[in-house]
Amino acid sequence: MLFCAMFITNAQVRKWTLQECVTYAVDNNLTIEQAELDLDNARIDKSDAIGNLLPSLNGDGRLTENVGLSFNPTSQEPVSTQLNFTGNLTSVLNLFDGLRNIRQLQRAELNTISNIYRLDDLKDDIRLNVANAYLQVLSNKEQLKVFKAQYAVTEQDLLRTKELVESGVVPRGDLLEIEATAATQEQQIINGEGLVLISRVNLAQLLQITDYENFDIADQEFEVPPSDILDNSAKTIYDKALTFRNDIKFSESNVEIAEKDLKIAKGAYYPRLSAFINYNTRYSDQNLNPQDLSIIPFTDQLWIFDGLAYGFQLEVPFFNGWSARNGVKRSKIGLLQAQLQLEQNKLELESNIQQAYVDVTTFSKSYEAAEKTVEARRLAYDYAKERFNVGLMNSFDFSQAQARVDNAEAEVIRTKYDYIFRLKILEFYFGIPISLN
């Protein structure tokens, strides 16, 4: 029964690949969902701007009862009570307003594009964060495997040392030293399991998954992927990044929006010309038919007393409390801020690419050095083990040789995944999608 329960529990654990993690994070991240809502709002703003170019059409009606002295609207005779209804239907078309409506539409289109760039930039950041967290889990898992493999070797050494102690070849103190080494490695395994768990939780949180116990990544090892990214100079990578990076496109679109805002603000200096047409009608319970003095029916009065008015309206801004002038000044400041932000983002991008380029070179050399070091440490350990087995080396020196191998193997794993991540960052700046294949 216990075996069945363990099998069912393990069967529930889903093994996630990097691509699955990236896709899930992009599809379910709350920040991205908020950015998508901002994009929806930008599209609604565009619809508003289109509507402002169309003629408006509004109707109104008013029903009143007058008590007291009033006059019949038809005969102009005084009456004591009167029930009136008036109705209007008005359409207004903006002919010229300093081109502000047209520029509002252009601004809305730019704002929609800007929000798309912002959304894509957020997705880029999440992809990088997920890749880093995923590689951290892989690194910790590989280190845990090394710790367990080292402990298995130490257990064999422990059995061998017991035999040597019993046969009188080595003193009992050597056995105690090996037992101490085994205890240290057990502690390393416990710490390694904790690091694996923490890194898994961190990755799950990026994916906004709360079922940590049943979340894990695919059991696979990755070697350093081949890449020719360093065949390109840092400047070449930067120049290409400027052509497609969403954060740069986002800043450039904000400059265009600020330029459009300035033109919209300047439009307030110009007169506004609009055309209008109005249809109106009325009804009164005092309107009598002259033939039989009966009240003219409601629908008949609407046709009899209706009217049509149309014309043009011109508004000329002479003085408005400096609001137009101050609006232009604010827009100029906004444009300068957007331009400065664009330059700042370009400088940050160039700095990040330069740093990533140096990191790839540095971690590549560190990884190569770590591989050479571990190879040398293993040879030294094999030699030390031969000497220890025949009693030519004490247990302390032998445990030191093993510790140096352990540290060298752990350093290989750390530098390997540091190098892989830096390599992927640099490739990402060059437009290569994140993949460990």
From TrEMBL:
<keyword id="KW-0998">Cell outer membrane</keyword>
<dbReference type="GO" id="GO:1990281">
    <property type="term" value="C:efflux pump complex"/>
</dbReference>
<dbReference type="InterPro" id="IPR051906">
    <property type="entry name" value="TolC-like"/>
</dbReference>
<dbReference type="GO" id="GO:0009279">
    <property type="term" value="C:cell outer membrane"/>
</dbReference>
<dbReference type="GO" id="GO:0015288">
    <property type="term" value="F:porin activity"/>
</dbReference>
<protein>
    <recommendedName>
        <fullName>TolC family protein</fullName>
    </recommendedName>
</protein>
<dbReference type="InterPro" id="IPR003423">
    <property type="entry name" value="OMP_efflux"/>
</dbReference>
<keyword id="KW-0812">Transmembrane</keyword>
<keyword id="KW-0472">Membrane</keyword>
<keyword id="KW-0813">Transport</keyword>
<comment type="similarity">
    <text>Belongs to the outer membrane factor (OMF) (TC 1.B.17) family.</text>
</comment>
<keyword id="KW-1134">Transmembrane beta strand</keyword>
<dbReference type="GO" id="GO:0015562">
    <property type="term" value="F:efflux transmembrane transporter activity"/>
</dbReference>
<dbReference type="Pfam" id="PF02321">
    <property type="entry name" value="OEP"/>
</dbReference>
